[in-house]
Automatic annotation (TrEMBL):
PANTHER family registered for this protein in UniProt: BLL3936 PROTEIN
Species lineage: Bacteria, Bacillati, Bacillota, Clostridia, Eubacteriales
InterPro entries: DctM, TRAP_DctM-Dct_fused
Top-level lineage group: Bacteria
Protein name, UniProt field: TRAP transporter permease
Keyword terms of this UniProt record: Membrane, Transmembrane, Transmembrane helix
A Pfam family hit: DctM
Membrane-spanning segments: 34-54, 60-77, 89-109, 121-137, 144-164, 187-209, 316-333, 354-372, 378-396, 417-435, 455-477, 489-507, 542-562, 568-590, 619-635
Length: 644
């Protein structure tokens, strides 16, 4: 049994190293490992202290935060994959680390002088800025990957070659570095500011919450709810991934963590490997849009849009429910088509045992109450939630958070912050470059001129931009890029600010399951041992709601509770649900019985009409869908009678 568990864990680690750059870390043992652990844990404690109590200049907080991110980044991540040498760090990495950390801390310890300089910077200071930017880029390459750096590189090259007005190259270089490093328009702009102030504390909270065994609780809860029904394991995957994704903040990480349990179960039940991997990838990716955490992007969105955090999570509930409803319907129809059954009752967890562990949800519930009720700041609420998590764990004899686990959680929080911090820093470079060159306005004008007054054209072009820019980029950095580059396009077209930001956030996230760079789908395929591209296309089909719902709340912002009434919300929810059901059935080609091509086209058309926010289209759509379903039901009865 232990050997089997070890084999499963080895497979999980292998998949993580292949598709998740965060898992490609140096191997430290003995005293060096202790030293690294202390550094990571101290960083987590430092972040909590700074966000709660520090009164020094914001520039000190931001520069020291990024300096420590660079330090930890070089200590944890090797320059290339597959470096398995124990306690080994090349001298070149040590030099690069010292230079990079020194560049950021030069700003920290000379902050007053730099602020008072205005725009008068020496070439020595410009070189310091260049070294800092290069160090950030290198750490990002190691722990995040190339896609986000390719985007940043394109914008930097554009700025130096064309976007800036200074006729001298070195004049343009000087201006670019000064703005990207010594102001709050680049690296130290909103993404890093929010990351250092809010996101890191929530990441640490997630690390503590995981140590309580809440992921296993979520999987058992999902089994208890849906395991006994047709195709139960797939439905368990949908529910558990939605719940676990709230905490994990990583599509790939969530896919591998829960998928190592759910994908083999789905295959054993009778689902094809490509479908099983796709279900897990799609559900895990959806965890990033699931309130209340939303992959930590909810805090960034609140800052970008200028509304309370509670407003963001409240508006995100209905679209998230529709997203998972679409997946749930698809897996149910697939199970019925294949005549799959649920799990045996004796293999399912007992409800009475789960009820006894319901207290594990208390920290998450109280966090939402404290923040949404404006009882305290987000960072204070997260800090208290960490303390509450430790207290709650004491009642769980299987997963008590001991002093050793506290150190482990602080270490895990610090390590997870590296990727998010580095990605947010590069996202700041992208948004800063776009702003100072005026490229954002050029992109907006180009798309608006192509679209004219046709919003649907602007939405399609913006969707394509989001999917391309979001490929291989972590959730938080992903949203930062979208908010700076694509959201203003829709706002110019008259879409409400909130709806525009939700639209670009959704399509940035689905890049994780959209070919050709569908990292979450590829991770799922590795566990399912299926064809990666087929798995990615299956995942895109399952995520039909993610491709439709954003259009719904742009054409009808009432779905995001914008300028609406309770009756309108109920009407929208019902018609949208029926529309999603119709589309899922059309894509699966099954409802009561196998559908022919004509019926699939007709019922898909009815589903799309229900998505359009007008009473006439809703009525026509309802008639088409119910007549089609009625026809399918009668047809299924005739086939069963003929078979007998």
């Amino acid at each position: 049994m232990l050997s089997a568990d070890a084999d499963v864990q080895a497979d999980v680690d292998s998949v993580m190293r292949k598709y998740d750059r965060e898992s490609n870390t140096r191997i430290w043992e003995g005293k060096p490992k202790i030293a690294i652990t202390v550094i990571l844990a101290a960083f987590s404690l430092w972040c909590i202290y700074v966000t709660l109590f520090a009164t020094f200049l914001e520039e000190i907080r931001l520069t020291s935060f990024m300096g420590l991110i660079i330090l930890m980044g070089f200590l944890i991540y090797p320059s290339k994959k597959g470096d398995q040498k124990v306690n080994h760090m090349p001298i070149s990495d040590i030099i690069f680390m010292i230079v990079g950390v020194g560049s950021f801390f030069y700003f920290t310890f000379n902050v007053n002088q730099i602020i008072n300089q205005g725009t008068r910077f020496t070439w020595f200071q410009i070189v310091i800025g260049i070294l800092a930017i290069l160090a950030l880029i290198e750490v990002t390459r190691r722990c995040v990957g190339l896609p986000i750096l390719i985007v940043a590189g394109v914008f930097i090259v554009y700025a130096l070659a064309y976007g800036l007005t200074n006729p001298e190259f070195f004049g343009r270089l000087r201006y670019l570095v000064r703005n990207l490093f010594y102001t709050k328009e680049g690296i130290f702009s909103t993404p890093v500011n929010v990351c250092s102030k809010y996101i890191v504390v929530f990441i640490i909270f997630g690390a503590f919450l995981e140590r309580t065994g809440i992921s296993n609780f979520f999987i058992d809860l999902a089994n208890c709810i849906a395991g006994r029904f047709a195709g139960g394991p797939a439905k368990v995957s949908v529910i558990s991934s939605a719940l676990c994704g709230m905490v994990s903040g990583s599509s790939v990480g969530n896919t591998v963590t829960t998928g190592s349990v759910t994908i083999p179960m789905m295959k054993k039940t009778g689902y094809k490997p490509e479908f099983a991997g796709a279900v897990e990838a799609t559900s895990s990716t959806g965890g990033q849009i699931m309130p209340p955490i939303m992959g930590a992007a909810a805090f960034l969105m609140a800052d970008f849009v200028g509304v309370p955090y509670s407003s963001i999570i409240g508006r995100a509930i209905l679209p998230a429910i529709l997203y998972f409803a679409g997946i749930f319907i698809s897996v149910h129809l697939e199970a019925k088509k294949l005549d799959l059954h649920g799990m045996p009752k004796e293999q399912l967890p007992k409800a009475r045992k789960l009820v006894k562990k319901i207290y594990l949800l208390l920290p998450l519930i109280m966090l939402v109450v404290w923040v949404s009720g404006n009882f305290m700041t987000m960072q204070k609420a997260a800090s208290l939630a960490i303390v509450l998590t430790v207290v709650v764990s004491l009642f769980n004899k299987d997963n008590r958070i001991t002093p050793g686990k506290i150190l482990e959680a602080l270490e895990a929080g610090g390590k997870s912050a590296i990727t998010v911090g580095a990605a947010c820093g590069v996202a700041g470079i992208i948004s800063g470059t776009i702003t100072m060159t005026g490229l954002a306005n050029d992109i907006i004008n180009a798309i608006v001129s192509v679209a004219g007054d046709r919003l649907i054209i602007a939405l399609i072009l913006t969707m394509l931009c989001c999917i391309v820019l979001g490929m291989g980029v972590p959730t938080t950095a992903n949203y930062c890029i979208m908010a700076a580059t694509t959201a203003p396009i829709l706002i110019r077209m008259g879409v409400p600010v909130m709806a525009a930001h939700f639209f670009v956030f959704y399509f940035g996230i689905v890049a994780d399951i959209t070919p050709p760079v569908a990292l979450a789908a590829y991770a799922g395929s590795a566990i399912a041992k299926s064809n990666p591209m087929k798995t990615a296309f299956n995942a895109s089909k399952l995520a039909v709601a993610a491709f439709i719902v954003p259009y719904m709340f742009c054409f009808n912002p009432a779905m995001l509770l914008i300028d609406t009434t309770a009756i309108q919300v109920v009407q929208i929810a019902i018609t949208a649900f029926i529309g999603i059901f119709a589309l899922a059935a059309a894509l699966e080609g099954y409802c009561f019985a196998n559908m022919n091509a004509v019926i699939r086209i007709v019922i898909a058309a009815g589903g799309l009409l229900l998505i359009h926010p007008a009473l006439a289209t809703d009525l026509v759509g309802l008639i088409i869908v119910f007549v089609s379903l009625g026809f399918q039901y009668v047809l299924s009865k005739k086939r069963k009678a003929a078979a007998q």
